[in-house]
Design a protein that fits this description.
The chain is built from no helices and five strands. By secondary structure, the chain is mainly β. The radius of gyration is 19 Å and the shape is elongated.
Length: about 90
Amino acid sequence: MEVGVEGLYEYVKFDEPLPATILAVAAGGFTVGPFLGYKIATGVGFTFEAQLGARYLAIEPTTQGMGTATITESKWLPLLHLNIGWSF
């Protein structure tokens, strides 16, 4: 059985030059939240892992080009991880 907390930061930037203008969009976000999970590993190596929880998401997207705008959003979302693989 697994019990834990996951924290993740992501930053994405997109620049697209268009004929009359340059549009740039960037978003940075942080998620954090608790989870419960379970991992099964068989004798031959097959492994399955599942984690379920909730995460708090805080993002701040920014657009530039046709005026600059910044919007901050935050909300709770589900957290789900399913992993299948082979362990040696």
